[in-house]
Structure formats: C-alpha cells, structure tokens
Automatic annotation (TrEMBL):
Solcar repeats lie at residues 43-131. This is Mitochondrial carrier 2. PROSITE patterns: SOLCAR. One of its GO terms (cellular component) is mitochondrial outer membrane. It is a multi-pass membrane protein. One of its GO terms (biological process) is positive regulation of apoptotic process. Keywords: Membrane, Mitochondrion, Mitochondrion outer membrane, Repeat, Transmembrane, Transmembrane helix, Transport. It comes from Accipiter nisus (Eurasian sparrowhawk). Belongs to the mitochondrial carrier (TC 2.A.29) family. The chain crosses the membrane at residues 111-129, 149-171.
C-alpha cells in the first residue's frame, strides 16, 4: 500500500507537471492578438480647406486697410509726395477724401485671388500626396512639405492677375501722381481694370523677378523716366 501510494503520488505529480507544461506551451504558441487596424480617416481636404478659407478671408478683410495704406505710401515716391506720412494721418486722409470704402479699394480681386490660390494649392497638394506619393517612404513628410511648397508657387502664379488688379485699384485715382495719368489710367471698377489689362496683354505685368515686359503700344522715355 505504501508503495502503491508513492507511485500514485509520483504519477500525479508527473501528470500535473505535464499538464502545466502543456498549457504553458499552448499559451506560448497562442498567436498574439494585434489591435484591429483603425479605419481610414475621412479626407480632411474639404473641411480643412473650408476653415482655412474662412480664416484667411477674415484676416484679409481686417488687414486690407493697412495694405491700402502701405501701397499708397510706396506709390507716392513716384511723384516725390508726402501725402501719407504716417498711419494715423493716412487713415484720416483716406476717410476724409474717400470715406469708409476707400479703405477697401481693391478688396474684391484680392479676396478672389486668395481663395482661388488656397483651393488650387490644397487641391493639387492633396492629389499629389494621395495618388502620386507612395506610403512608407522614409522621407514622406519631407516630400509632402515640398509638394505643398511647389503647388503654392504654381497657384500664386496662376492667380497673380488678381493681385495685380487689386494693387492697381488700391492706388487708382487716389490723388497721387502714381495713380493718375500719365503714369496710370483711371479705372471705373476692378472689372474695367481687368479687361483693359487683358486687352493690352499686361495680365502678368511685374510677375517676373528679373525681367520687365514693355507695355503694349508704349515706349520708354529716358528724359521722363517712364513709359509713354
């Protein structure tokens, strides 16, 4: 009986050890459960661009009076004038001569140019980053930043006519020599300015950093240092 009891105890211990190793092996061989992949996020292109458009339009609307004053302060160097000698005096001069609308001269083409440039830039960058660049590249973030910069450059080139028209309307018929004949014609509206520039082929005037295009039908007079 003693011998049989010892055998049963040894066999019981051995069976328990085998079962423990068996369950441990099953635990070790059990495949690791990875977390389920997150669903692909919705495209942030439309909501993000819409929010950025609203923010940029609001910023343009608020800062445009300062933009007008800056342009007129630069243009008055053409006639060696001192009409706009400071920020406060410039605000008073514009309000006295043109009213509140004088602070927003050239606002509409500037707003249109900013909105078109923003949508073109973000749309081209989104298409390039989504369909042209492959995921998994080590320099993926750098490539996306480069694509954003390149698309922004091309978008600014395409929308440059809006910037040109906006700047011309900001100084149009403002009492400065640079905004009057013979230096610049008087425009009735920004659409009139656009059509006249388009008719003369000057929609890209001043766009180049190194070259300057001669206005159509005009020649440069050295004695007067201007085109006639």
């Amino acid at each position: 009986r003693v011998f049989s009891g010892v055998v049963r105890r040894v066999l019981g211990c051995e069976r328990g050890s085998v079962q423990h190793r068996h369950h441990r092996g099953l635990y070790l061989l059990r495949p690791c459960r990875l977390p389920p992949p997150a669903p692909p996020p919705d495209s942030p292109f439309l909501p993000q661009t819409s929010r950025e458009m609203v923010a940029r339009s609001a910023a343009t609307l608020i800062t445009h009076p300062f933009h007008v004053i800056t342009l007129r302060c630069m243009v008055q160097f053409i006639g060696r004038e001192t009409k706009y000698s400071g920020t406060l005096s410039a605000f008073a001069t514009i309000y006295r001569e043109e009213g509140v609308l004088g602070f927003f001269a050239g606002l509409i083409p500037r707003l249109l140019g900013d909105i078109l440039s923003l949508w073109l830039c973000n749309m081209l960058a989104y298409l390039i980053n989504t369909y042209a660049l492959e995921n998994g590249v080590s320099t993926m973030a750098e490539m996306k930043s480069y694509s954003q910069a390149v698309t922004g450059f091309f978008a600014s080139m395409l929308t440059y006519p809006f910037v040109l028209v906006s700047n011309l309307m900001a100084v149009n018929n403002c009492g400065l020599a640079g905004g009057l004949l013979p230096y610049a014609p008087t425009y009735s509206s920004w659409l009139d300015c656009w059509s006249q520039l388009h008719r003369e082929g000057n929609m890209s005037r001043g766009n180049s950093l190194f070259f300057r295009k001669v206005p159509a039908g005009k020649r440069y007079v050295w004695e007067e240092r201007r085109f006639r």
